[in-house]
Amino acid sequence: MMRAPRPVAYLPRRRGFCTLFIVIFVLSSIFISCIVHYYKHLTGTKWDLGANPKHAKPVMNSFAYQLMPHLNDHPSSLKPAFLLNGTRENCDVVIGIPTVHRDKGSYIISTVSNVIHGMTDEEKDKNLIVVLVAETQMDYVRPLVEKLATLFSEYIYTGLVELVVPSPFYYPDFDNLPLNFGDSNKRVMWRTKHNLNVLYVMAYARSRGTYYLMLEDDVTVKERFIEHMLDFAKAKTKSNPDWYVLEFCNIGGIGKLFKTSDLIYFMTYIQLFYKQMPIDWLLESYIADSSCSLDRATESCTNSKTQI
After folding, report:
1. What is the mean pLDDT of residues 161-175?
2. Pick from 269, 271, 243: which is nearest to 257 by CA?
3. 82: closest CA among 34, 29, 140?
4. CB 174 within 8 A of CB 30
């Protein structure tokens, strides 16, 4: 006895329910898999690299391991513990912002927001912001990275913002630093770590654009600040093609604009003296060493430094 074929549109409720359940189960499995894949970089004690390993290793000079011998203690000392990056290249300006734990609260979110909102839409497509979460304590790093990744997901997706966490093996033993200038061990440790953070971001970012802008995690910028900086840099290049650094803020290591093609020289200087003095002193010392000789008068030396 043959049964009449059911209409194509006919589907028993039970079979429809089972089909719907399977679809939901598959989609849920895919979603959970994606979440697990993403958060495996943020949980546990062993981290992996992010999606794009192209810029996974900061480009130090060839003798970095000789100048900073503690890097030889672990094969992953220059390999980021976490990396959430894009593929943006040939930027006008790469902005490096290292951030650290502060007892009175973090300013990095407001700083990044301010920097982004200070750009035009066109500038958001032609520049890059690299945020270095420069801590090794998981209970601080993980929630901050998650928060940054959530709040700036749009700009991470477009390639404007990248997040990097250095390996804990990148840092030396801070308990055995030479003390100088009458500074306490805590002060010496802080400035040494800050120098290494600045160096790390420079090394990571210097191949990504024409200029490198050094910022800190507690600053505000004016609207269209990149436009004004680039206009000034172009005018300066016409009058002095050999300029080395342009200073847009006279406080610490904030607002210093470099040509990335020349950045390796100051990076080497930091590697030589990162234990001796803070970053603003290192830059001042580098400029003095580059433009002055021991037999020149102070006034003459000062005039030479202004040309660099």
Report:
1. 93
2. 243
3. 140
4. no
